[in-house]
Amino acid sequence: xxxxxxxPGETxPGETxMVREFPDNALAQVLFxxxxxxxxxxxxxxxxxLDVRGNTVTISGTPESAADTARILDSLYQSVKRQGHLETxxxxxxxxxxxxxxGAADLVIRTRKRHIAPRTPTxxxxxxxxxxxxxxxGLGPAGTGKTYLAVAKAVSxxxxxxxxxxxxSRPAVEAGERLGFLPGDLKDKVDPxxxxxxxxxxxxxxxDQVAKKLLAGEIEVAPLAFMRGRTLANSxxxxxxxxxxxxxxxxxxxTRMGEHSRMVVTGDTSQTDLPPGTRSGLLxxxxxxxxxxxxxxxxxxxxxxxxxxxxxxxxxAYDKADRAAKAKSGDK
Length: 332
Description:
The chain is of the alpha/beta class. Helices cover 44% and strands 16% of the residues. It has eleven helices and eleven strands. The strands form three sheets. It has a six-stranded parallel sheet, sandwiched between helices. Strand 4 and strand 5 (115-116) form a beta hairpin. Helix 2 (37-46) packs parallel to helix 4 (88-100). The longest helix is centred in the last third of the chain and has 23 residues, at 309-331. Mean pLDDT is 84; it is low at 2-9.
């Protein structure tokens, strides 16, 4: 690894040495990365020296940095065991997470099929808000876990008996399409818009349980228009892609909350598909409700993107282009 790194068992004054052994050779190689690139990344970011002997890594550094590195390696190894691969963004997320949240284990969301832990400090803030606030807004770019974590929290609360129903909704307006021009019956028309919500559900619950709860009405996945005129009590209610609501739709949705319910609104204000000149109801809600007791706003950035590393760079490139376009229009 790094030139001059201490031999296993050797440490400089004030430093400590820790050893981590990873039993599966193939998984260890994925963890270490091509030419140990992931270990090099940990060294440069955390100020430790890593010495590799086969599947064993000796960590040398201050007691705090060595312990943090050991925790990160253990966590990433478990990720590799689950998914068989490891992205650079996951390594970066794990470093941010450990450095910012020593007690992140307390924030794990437990569902029937998996346990979901926060991977960035903002995700930790979001999970806290989901557990504390009656109304939470998750704002920011794609790939940050806004909807996925909200669905996970909803399922965990249903499993624990804290809510009776889960309501998942989206405005059925995307990329200029309208339901009336699409083929099929109503279900055929709306299901493509709601598919990401179904996907999240099937990640949290066995398929037969999802089907049973959908049939019984314990879980409802419906376009936003279906919320009108209802009062939703003892429910966990999620509105996804909220940037595509009008002001009237957003007001209608927010006033559906009944007793003992929790509501989550997710969206990216930079990606509205509303007709030109139509103001987003999400923007209105942010301005009107900011500072209100019981309402939490969690703002994600490109640093919270936990998909492929390329997604992070794409988000940043588009943000840069947007800023340049705004600056250019302001000069005119």
